[in-house]
């Protein structure tokens, strides 16, 4: 067989893709073993029936052919209005490209701003696909380390040190996996570094509707940052439309024009009936987004209550998103060791912190994606299991 390209064979670097425990859990389920899954960010409520009806009506109405590659104009207008309302930055449809989900947006953004061999910065901990998406653009990922004791917020000195020679910086706020919501001073540190280094900032804001403490601030709103920032958004988390695969990139018009060329040669756009459903969902307003977000805010309170009853497993303050990060180092195990042992002992699947980088070693990420009573029971079992490990040690 002829050789495969170096780009495709090195997407995961020299190690795993970070999903090993998840794959193990799915294999157990396929074999008939019941597993309590707290791994991926998949809503337990599903897409709202009114959105599905809009999708159905659009498809039945004939919007099943090729849709215009940049996105349906009405949807681009709606996204632009949403972003302008959030950031205060004038935004029009020419600043918006509709993409097949946020992941495709991340890939396209890095293709736009990173040349082969460039350095693309990512903040550690990071969503598991971030290093691979940087490599897929032919760039080299470099991490900005953070500390659990500081809530995993990137610090100015670390940003400055890591940014030498970098072309881009990818951030995510509200953050997956940590739940951190970057405050203004952190975003200003980021803006200062990327401005001095003349870098692009790629801001993954797919959890912008899930903020439990503070407020979401897009770095695009900071002075002189709109010209060097690409914002990634998605309907997946805000409207429980994960499988619909629809998102967007917002950025300078000249960048979007180039990205339309990329989309023409890769995805060739997003199905029109899915775009129409997204437009319906955005027009439904904030009430629908609040309905989607509310279970996670409620379960965050459950997690705080359960974790407060013991002092072995430490919960990192979760200010946003649909996860809690737990420090399990007191058990003597790594995050990966703890997650595998918990899966074996209690058939509860969580994500090891090591799946998201070295800064989260000794932690596990728990997705708040189960019905309340099941979620609470799983957390109690996790804490009891941790206590047993610590006692045995």
Automatic annotation (TrEMBL):
Among the Pfam families in the record, one is Aminotran_1_2
Which organism's genome codes for this protein? Marivita lacus
Task: Show the catalytic activity.
Answer: L-aspartate + 2-oxoglutarate = oxaloacetate + L-glutamate
Question: Where does the Aminotransferase class I/classII large domain lie?
Answer: 35-382
List the protein's name.
Aminotransferase
The UniProt record lists the EC number as: 2.6.1.-
Q: Which GO terms describe its molecular function?
A: transaminase activity
Per UniProt, which keywords does this protein have?
Aminotransferase, Pyridoxal phosphate, Transferase
Family to which the UniProt record says this protein belongs: Belongs to the class-I pyridoxal-phosphate-dependent aminotransferase family.
Has keyword Transferase?
yes
Q: Which cofactor does it need?
A: pyridoxal 5'-phosphate
């Amino acid at each position: 067989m002829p050789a495969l390209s170096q780009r495709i064979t090195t997407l995961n670097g020299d190690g795993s893709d970070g999903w090993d425990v998840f794959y193990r859990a799915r294999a157990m389920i396929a074999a008939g073993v019941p597993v309590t899954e707290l791994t991926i960010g998949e809503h337990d409520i599903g897409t709202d029936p009114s959105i599905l009806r809009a999708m159905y009506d659009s498809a039945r109405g004939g919007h099943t052919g090729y849709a215009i590659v940049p996105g349906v104009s009405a949807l681009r207008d709606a996204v632009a209005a949403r972003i302008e309302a959030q950031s205060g930055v004038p935004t029009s449809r020419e600043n918006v490209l509709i993409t097949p989900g946020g992941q495709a947006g991340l890939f396209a953004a890095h293709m736009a701003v990173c040349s082969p061999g460039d350095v693309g910065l990512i903040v550690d901990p990071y969503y598991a696909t971030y290093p691979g998406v940087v490599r897929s653009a032919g760039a080299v990922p470099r991490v900005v380390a953070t500390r659990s004791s500081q809530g995993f917020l990137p610090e100015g000195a670390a940003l400055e040190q890591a940014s030498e020679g970098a072309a881009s910086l990818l951030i995510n706020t509200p953050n997956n996996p940590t739940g951190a919501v970057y405050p203004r001073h952190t975003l200003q540190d980021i803006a200062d570094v990327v401005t001095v280094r003349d870098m692009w900032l790629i801001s993954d804001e797919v959890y912008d509707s899930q903020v439990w403490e503070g407020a979401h601030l897009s770095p695009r709103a900071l002075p002189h940052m709109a010209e060097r920032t690409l914002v990634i958004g998605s309907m997946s988390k805000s409207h429980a439309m994960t499988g619909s695969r629809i998102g967007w990139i917002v950025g300078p018009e000249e960048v979007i024009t180039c990205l339309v060329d990329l989309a023409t040669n890769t995805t060739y756009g997003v199905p029109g009936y899915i775009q129409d459903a997204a437009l319906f969902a955005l027009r439904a307003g904030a009430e629908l987004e609040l309905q989607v977000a509310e279970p996670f805010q409620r379960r965050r309170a459950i997690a705080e209550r359960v974790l407060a009853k013991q002092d072995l497993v430490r919960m990192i303050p979760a200010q946003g998103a649909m996860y809690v990060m737990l420090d399990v180092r007191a058990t003597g195990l790594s995050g990966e060791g703890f997650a595998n042992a918990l899966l074996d002992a209690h058939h509860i699947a969580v994500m090891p912190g090591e799946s998201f980088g070295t800064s989260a070693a000794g932690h596990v990420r728990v997705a708040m994606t189960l019905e309340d009573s099941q979620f609470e029971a799983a957390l109690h079992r996790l804490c009891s299991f941790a206590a047993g490990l610590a006692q045995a040690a």
